[in-house]
């Protein structure tokens, strides 16, 4: 498996496209600029299987309806945010004038708990990492040594907690009890900014 980071939209949210040798693909957080996603998928002859959402803030869901419609694929979202795609107040789009109010379709698949998941040949673990938002999750691909952390943990920073449902104490607990316990060489692929490693954040992140 390999992955490609594609920053999208006004806030440059990282969309990740994962692909395997069979050209199957997963799309993590299609936040905006649908055309860029389509171009990458088509240029690389990929076959999307699903959309994985680390959480349902507006900058991570802006192209989710178009992507699902284009390839007739489901979106996976944690149960604690099961109604956020449809609600501009909760997904935050109502409070950011640079975007329209997002009333997206509900997610087809609900992640009810921390669990091992398989989609096609992709095998990964869903880690519940709330705090930035109540339903924030991280997708851990142990075999590849990478975790897609959404807006929980960044290079040198952590997620903001001043939006609807945010809680800094909960976020810090998530980071310490779920993410920092991973092998130190694990690559952290965050929702914004540069990739980092668990070791680097343990050693240098001023919030931790």
UniProtKB/TrEMBL annotation:
CC cofactor: Zn(2+)
Residue ranges of every copy of the Metallo-beta-lactamase domain listed in the record: 12-192
Entry-linked InterPro entries: MBL_Glyoxalase_II (IPR051453), Metallo-B-lactamas (IPR001279), RibonucZ/Hydroxyglut_hydro (IPR036866)
Keyword field: Hydrolase, Metal-binding, Zinc
Signal peptide start and end residues: none
SUPFAM superfamilies from the UniProt entry: Metallo-hydrolase/oxidoreductase
UniProt cross-references to PANTHER family, sorted A to Z: HYDROXYACYLGLUTATHIONE HYDROLASE GLOC (PTHR46233)
UniProt name for this protein: Glyoxylase-like metal-dependent hydrolase (Beta-lactamase superfamily II)
């Amino acid at each position: 498996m390999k992955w490609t980071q594609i920053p999208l939209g006004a806030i440059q949210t990282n969309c990740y496209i994962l692909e395997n040798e069979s050209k199957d693909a997963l799309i993590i957080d299609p936040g905006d600029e649908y055309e860029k996603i389509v171009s990458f998928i088509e240029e690389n002859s990929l076959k999307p299987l699903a959309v994985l959402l680390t959480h349902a803030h507006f900058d991570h869901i802006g192209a989710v309806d178009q992507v699902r419609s284009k390839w007739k694929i489901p979106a996976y979202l944690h149960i604690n945010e099961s109604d956020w795609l449809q609600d501009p107040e909760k997904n935050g789009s109502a409070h950011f004038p640079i975007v329209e109010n997002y009333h997206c379709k509900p997610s087809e698949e609900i992640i009810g708990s921390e669990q091992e998941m398989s989609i096609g040949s992709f095998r990964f673990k869903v880690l519940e990492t709330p705090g930035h938002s109540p339903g924030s999750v991280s997708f851990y691909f142990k075999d590849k040594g990478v975790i897609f952390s959404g807006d929980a943990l960044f290079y040198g920073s952590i997620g903001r907690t001043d939006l609807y449902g945010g809680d800094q104490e909960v976020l810090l607990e998530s980071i310490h009890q779920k993410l920092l316990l991973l092998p130190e060489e694990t690559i952290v692929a965050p929702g914004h900014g540069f990739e980092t490693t668990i070791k680097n954040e343990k050693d240098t992140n001023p919030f931790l």
